[in-house]
Predict the 3D structure of the following.
Amino acid sequence: MPDVEGITHEAASLYRFIESIERFCASQPGFAAYLEGSSKFLSFIEGLANSTKTYLEARPKNVPDNASDYRVYRQELRTLRFAWHYVHRLVKPVADAHTLHLPESLIDCLVRRLRSMPDFAASELAILHIRELNYLQVIAGDMRAKLTEIASLVGTSPPFPPNLGLIGIPYSQAKSILINSLIAHEIGHFVFETRQLRDVLGPKIKAALDTAFKPVLSKLQMEDARRIPGVFTSWSEELFCDLFAVRFIGPCYCYAFIETFDLSSHLEIDGTIHLRFAAPQLLFALSHPAHFYRIQKQAEMLGKLGWWAHIVNSECATQKFLARCEALPASCFLFPFNAALQKGFIDALDLLVADLVATVEECVQGTDTGVKEYSRLSQRVRECFLEGIVPSMVRDPESGKPVDAVTVLNVAYQLYLDNLPDLMGRILDQDAGSAKDRTRWTEKLEQWTLKTLGDLALISSKVGA
Amino acid sequence: MYENSDRYLALALASRKALRSLNDYVKLGTVDEKLQNIFEEVVKSLKATKDANNLFGPMPTESPFTTYEQVRTLEEVESEHKDKNIVQKLSQQLKKYDSEKQRRDEAEAAIEFFYMLENRALHHYSSQIGSREL
C-alpha cells in the first residue's frame, strides 16, 4: 500500500526548504545592486524554485502502486533534496556579494578583457563571497551541469543563463584590489570549463602518463594507478589556470599569489630557498600542485611572454622569490604517492606543461599580452601614482589610446612592492617603517587604481558608443 | 565549494536522468538518445577498469561516470548487482516491444542498476556533507 501521506509530508518539507532559499533570491527594493551576472543567477534560481514547487505540488497525485516503481519514485525526492542542498550552498554567498561589497571596477575590466577573447564575447560573471581566505576554488561548469539537471528533473524551468560563470572571492577582500588579481585564476577555470578542456586535454594527459610511467610500471600499485588520472587532471587544470592568469593579466597575478600565501617568507637570510626547510612547499597536494612548482611555471610563463625583462630589476622579496623558484631543480618536488613514482610524475608534467601553454595561447588568441604597452607607458603611470594623481588620462603616444587596465594593475602592484616608501617619503609625518602608515598608503594606492579602472571603463564605453 | 562530494551528486543526478528515461521506455515505449549515451558512458567506464592494457583506467572527462569517486561507486554497484551480466546488458540497445510487460522485463536490470547507483551516490554525498557540516 503506497504511503501517500508520507510522500505528501516529504514533498511539503522540501517545498518549505526551497521557499526558505528562494527568499534570498528576491530583489529587495532600495537595497544594493548586483552585477548583471549575479542578478541573472539569482533570477534563474528563483525560476528553478518555482518550477520545483509546482512539481512538488503535483507529486503526491502520481504515486505508483507497484513495489519497484514505488521504490524508484520515492528516491527521486531524495535526489532532489540533496540537489537543493547544493543550491543552498550557492545562493546566500551570491546574495551577499552585491556591488557595495565587490571591487566592481576591477571585475568589470576583467570581464571586458575576457569578452575580447574568441568565444567569450557574451560572457558574464556572477560573484559570490566565500568564507575561506582562498580564491583557488571554483564553481563553474559543474555547477551549470548540475543546475541544468535539476531544471530538467522538475520540468518547465527557464534554462540556465548561457555564458555565465560563478566566481568566489573572500568576503573581506572587496577593497583589496591588488590581491584580487587572483580572480584571473578563477576566470581561467571558467575558460577551462567553457572550452571543455578536460575532454580536450584528456588524451594528452593519458599519453603523458603512459609514456612517463612506462619505466616504473612494476612499482605502480593498482589503487595508485586508479587515483593518478584524476589527481593529475586536477593538477593540469590548476596549472592551466595559473598560466592563463599570467597570460591574462601579467605579473600582478604572481605577486598576488605569493602575497596571499606569504611565500616570500621562505627566503633564507642569503636570499636563497633551503630545500630541506621548504619541503612542505615542495609537496604536491592531491588537489593542487606544490606552491613552489606553481610559481616556477608562472615565472617561466612570464619569461615566455616577455614580462621578465620588465620586472627583473625589482629589488623586492616577491621578485627574488619568483627568480629563486624558477631556478629550482625538477627533482626537488615531492608527490603524494610512492616515492618510486616521483620521476614518473616529473616526466609526465614536463610532457604536459608545453601542451598547457599552447592551450592557453589558443584560448586567448588575438588578445594582447600588454607587455609592449607596459614598456611604453609604465613609467608615466608610475609617476602619476607617485604624485597621487589618478592616471586615467595617460595615453599611448603612438596609438593615442588610453592606457590599458593591465598596465595600470601591474604598475600599481610593482609600485606597492618597490616604491611605497618613495610615495610615503613625499608626505609629511609618514613612516615607511610603520605597518599602520604603509597600510594607509596601500589603501590610497588601491583607491587610485580602482578609480583609474572605473574611468577607463567609462572612456571605453564612450568610445564604444 | 568545488568538492569531491559534488561528483557524487552529479552521479546521482545522471542516474536519475536514466531512471526517468527508463520509466518513459516502460510506460510509453520510447527510447531517447540521452539514455543510450548514459548506457554507453557507464559501459565504457566499467570496461576501462577491467582493461589489462589500460592500467590507469578511465580518464576523467565531462561525463559524470569517469572520476575516481564515480568509477569506484560504479564498481561497488556492479559487484552488488544481482545480474552479473549487467555490463553486457547495458551494452545492448533496449528492444522495442509492444507490451508494457515485455518492456518492463527488458528494462528491469537497468532500472535496478541505476536505482542502486543513485542510492549509493546519495549515500556517499550525504556522508561527506554530513561529516563536514553537521
Remarks:
- The first helix of chain B runs from residue 4 to 28.
- Residues 97 and 103 of chain B are 6 Å apart (CA to CA).
- The mean pLDDT of chain B is 90.
